[in-house]
Each structure stands twice: as structure tokens, then as C-alpha cells.
Amino acid sequence: MRTTLRMAALTWLLAMTPFLLGQARTTAWVRTFTCSGNGIAQTDTFTLAPGEWRICYRPHGRGPFSVTLRDADSGLNKRLTNQTGPEVASGSSKGNYGIKSAYLVVHGSDDGWQVWVEHYMDTVDEWNFRQSQTPRKALERLGSWTGEAAEQTVTVQVTAPHWRFSHEQLGPGRLRLDVFDATGQCLLRACTAVSGIREAWIHQSGEFTVRISAIDTPWIFHIDAPVTPAGTQDY
Fold this sequence. Notes:
By secondary structure, the chain is mainly beta. 14% of the residues lie in helices and 51% in strands. It has two domains: 28-132, Jelly Rolls, CATH 2.60.120.380; 139-226, Jelly Rolls, CATH 2.60.120. It has two helices and 17 strands. Strand 13 (174-180) and strand 14 form a beta hairpin.
């Protein structure tokens, strides 16, 4: 009886092996990074694995709307979409060129937008991809600034090459923040009408001007940068 059951189980396993292997190696689009925001912002860096991938975007509100892929190592740019509006549409841009680490620069409306990265991979490739990702470095706070409802300008000096800008509206009014580099280029613009923390990244060092316009609300913003171990330099 046991021999018969074992033979039956072995026969079933052999018959199902092609199906099971086929299921395990089925390829699909797998989301590996996502970010949402409004106005002008840069995302955190993300990994682009060898093979086929695509950058997807979904704007809200009216245009203009643009998304640029920037190589974090070389600084080279690739414009993925540039819609003048007023009507703007969701879409995606495929690629397989040799960029390993990148981030997105998004110019959109105050109504918001969402961007995400997908890789075309099977379950084995996805597992290998997830395992290859190094843990994010811990962040240390470089400074915090607070204020009341008013027009205000703050100048900050940041030596870190990659840093996170987070801000929070603390009252029921409206808040707008713009961050400019030393050349006057706007790197971040965010408008909020509800409380909650908002985050974006800036991928350069130097002197920056933060312009705050607050109506009926106090505010706070923070600058945090990845911790760099002593004796090393973050590029």
C-alpha cells in the first residue's frame, strides 16, 4: 500500500514539474520603487537592475508636467515626459540602458502626482533583486527651523551631497515652501492645505534659500542626511 502511494505521489510530482517550474519563472512587471508628491521635487535614489524596466507616472490636475530621469553617478539626464498642458496624461517610459542608480526630477501641479519604477522579472529575479538591495543608511538631523504665519526667507548651508527636506504644516491654513540653489534654480516647491509631514530629496550640496509663505498656520522644516561613517566620504 505504501509503495503504491509513493509511486502515485512520484508520478504526480513528475507530471506537475513543468507546470510548477513554469509558474515559478513567469515574468511580470514588478513595482520596486514609488514616490508621490506635488509641485516640484526630486525623489530618493533607486536601483535600476539589468534587463527591462519602465518608469510610470500619474499626474493630477492640469499641466505643465514633466519627469526627468537623472543618473545618480554621472548626472546625465533623460527626459521621460514633457507635457505643456493644460491637459496632462498618465504614461510610462521603458528602458534597459546601463544606469545603476538614479532618481527622478518631477515638475507638476499643486494637485499632486505619483511616480513609480517597475522591472520586468520573474519570481527568482525579483528575489535576487530584493536580496541585493543594501539597507538604507540611517539619517542624522542637520537642523530644524520653525516659524509662524508670515512671509520668511531662510538661508541654509548643506555639505552633504544627498539630503532629505521634510516639512510640516502645523495649523489649518495654507503653506508654500520653495527651495532654491545658489544659481536661483528652484529645486523644490510644495504647497499644502492640511497638516502632515511631506518629504523630498535634494542631490547636491551648497547654499540654499528656503522661502516660506504661511497663511494662518505655523510651520516646521527639517534637513536630514545619511550618516557617513568616520574616515569615509559620501559621494
